[in-house]
């Protein structure tokens, strides 16, 4: 009887049984995560035709493959350390629409970060085609819908909430009024004045340059719309405090106070000197 129990115990503790249990557990966890995890907006290629994807691939190969690789998996690093474009697998259509639609890509020259330019090299149709091709390679953030960008029905309460969310998550880089600011290593947070709501939304979901990604778990789509509504109103809202001085905060205010104060002291000194003589 003792020998039988020992044999059964030995079979239960067989190393292969542990491996099988771990594998089953991993499969179970992965399946549950895929089924239950909240999903951000993902670029769907269902709406994009095969012709659009093929046209986008041709545009990509002609204009982007030098840096990003023929399969969009990233370019090879040259001996001088330059020429390596990041992989675009999984960046989604939103990233392409933002980078190319703001003129940041194709990159004109190597720099600390890609600047926004006014001259866009591609039409919106061509940008959509490249975005469709990149989206066909792997799921990623989609271009925001018209509903997500509709700020006409956003209430004043929602706009105030958007301002609060912006100042909590964005003001440390973009300034409390969205006027931009300097970062480290020659980088900067751009001025958001006049930036389209679509590009603001895409920046939040893709995290370009040094910007973090704000997915729907961090900032909901409704809150993103509220932020865009506040930024739109901030462009036209009068400053209740008088002169905004560029909305640069203590820098411009301190400079004005310093120059004005010194000028006042010099004027008083000259007046007193003339009076005493």
From TrEMBL:
The protein's Enzyme Commission number: 7.1.1.8
UniProt PTM comment: Binds 2 heme c groups covalently per subunit.
Entry's transmembrane regions: 255-274
Membrane topology qualifier: Multi-pass membrane protein
The UniProt record lists the keyword Coiled coil: no
Binding residues for heme c 2: 170, 173-174
Pfam family, one: Cytochrome_CBB3
Catalytic reactions of this protein: a quinol + 2 Fe(III)-[cytochrome c](out) = a quinone + 2 Fe(II)-[cytochrome c](out) + 2 H(+)(out)
Keywords from the named record: Cell membrane, Electron transport, Heme, Iron, Membrane, Metal-binding, Repeat, Respiratory chain, Translocase, Transmembrane, Transmembrane helix, Transport
Entry's Gene Ontology molecular function annotations: heme binding; iron ion binding; quinol-cytochrome-c reductase activity
GO cellular component: plasma membrane
Record's keyword annotation contains Cell membrane: yes
Cell location: Cell membrane
Domain Cytochrome c: 51-138, 157-235
Major location (coarse): membrane
Binding site for heme c 1: 64, 67-68
Quaternary organization: The cytochrome bc1 complex is composed of a cytochrome b (QcrB), the Rieske iron-sulfur protein (QcrA) and a diheme cytochrome c (QcrC) subunit.
Name listed for the protein in its UniProt record: Cytochrome bc1 complex cytochrome c subunit
Originating organism: Kineococcus radiotolerans
Upper taxonomic lineage: Bacteria, Bacillati, Actinomycetota, Actinomycetes, Kineosporiales
């Amino acid at each position: 009887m003792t020998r039988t129990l020992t044999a059964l115990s030995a079979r239960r503790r067989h190393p292969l049984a542990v491996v099988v249990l771990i594998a089953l557990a991993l499969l179970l966890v992965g399946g549950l995560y895929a089924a239950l995890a909240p999903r951000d907006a993902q670029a769907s290629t269902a709406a994009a035709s095969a012709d659009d994807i093929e046209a986008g691939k041709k545009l990509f190969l002609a204009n982007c493959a030098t840096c990003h690789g023929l399969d969009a998996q990233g370019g090879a690093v040259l001996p001088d350390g330059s020429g390596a474009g990041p992989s675009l697998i999984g960046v989604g259509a939103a990233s392409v629409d933002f980078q190319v639609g703001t003129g940041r890509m194709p990159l004109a020259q190597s720099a600390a970060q890609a600047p926004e330019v006014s001259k866009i090299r591609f039409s919106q149709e061509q940008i959509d085609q490249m975005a469709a091709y990149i989206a066909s390679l792997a799921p990623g953030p989609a271009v925001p819908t018209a509903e997500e960008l509709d700020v006409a029905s956003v209430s004043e309460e929602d706009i105030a909430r958007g301002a609060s969310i912006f100042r909590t998550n964005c003001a440390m880089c973009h300034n409390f009024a969205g006027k931009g600011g300097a970062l480290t290593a020659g980088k900067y947070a751009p001025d958001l004045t006049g930036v389209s709501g679509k590009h603001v939304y895409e920046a939040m979901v893709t995290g370009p340059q040094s910007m973090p990604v704000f997915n729907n778990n961090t900032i909901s789509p409704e809150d993103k719309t509220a932020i865009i509504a506040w930024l739109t109103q901030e462009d036209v809202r009068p400053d209740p405090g008088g002169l905004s001085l560029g909305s640069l905060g203590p820098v411009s205010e301190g400079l004005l106070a310093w120059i004005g104060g010194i000028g006042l002291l010099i004027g008083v000194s000259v007046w007193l000197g003339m009076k005493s003589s």
